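Side project, low priority. Logging it here so it doesn't get lost.
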Amino acid sequence: MRIAAFTYQQQPQVGLVSDDLQTVTPFDLAPALRELGALPIVELLAGGAALPPLLAALPLSAVTLRAPLPRPRRNLFCVGKNYHAHAKEFARSGFDSSAKAGGEIPACPIIFTKVPECVIATGAAIEMPVGVSTAIDYEAELAVVIGRGGRGIRKEDAMAHVWGYTIVNDVTARDWQNRHMQWHMGKSFDTFCPMGPWLVSADSVDAGNMQVRCWVNGEERQNASTQDLIFDITTLIETLSAGITLYPGDVIATGTPVGVGIGFTPPKYLQNGDVVRIAIDGLGVLENPVV
């Protein structure tokens, strides 16, 4: 199942995307709920309710996709240094404040957050903050969307709390990340979380064996399997929920593979006119220009 948030004739809608990716069928929802993207659908299904009634199908080419969760209910949970090769490249970069305490490979998940207002849709522009930072980097990531919430969730039960998945680009101002030691500010600039193109339900894909790829202007930069995660999805959910109640629609970005801009010599930061394209098996493509 693919749930998309979109606009049609300037009105927000939420709908089911067909398996052939040719049509999207809107749900019959109140306007206030449609503004929230896929969140009301996730909440309904997490509570055991049926899908809302469907309206007439629309050509996917006739709509404009929004981020599937245009404004998440709270900050996105993110995981730092969660692929072995990326952890090593980041430690070598000189921008890794966490390496001073924990070495290259973390012993426990490193969790930080991004503010919900930085989420944008596929096709929307990543905006360079002129006069603020020139060290803007990309990070392709698999994101987990929580369905059934809870606290104190055990690893063996964690997957029952996953509604599905989407793609995020954890865009980062590296100089701010280094200067402020903790990562929240450099990760949370406006437009720094492209998300999409839609949500895909957990029963449709194998998140334990997905290929995560990223290209900048057609040049492949990242290509790794989620089999290489240091801390898998169940560990992340157990860790986060130990003291924090998770809610339907919460987003956990699981970390980025090797190949980010800071890992090159010299670094390959994003520039005006670049296009970042991310593809993850079974989830689709997230593509954004840089301006």
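Brief comment: The mean pLDDT is 94.
Revisit when time allows.
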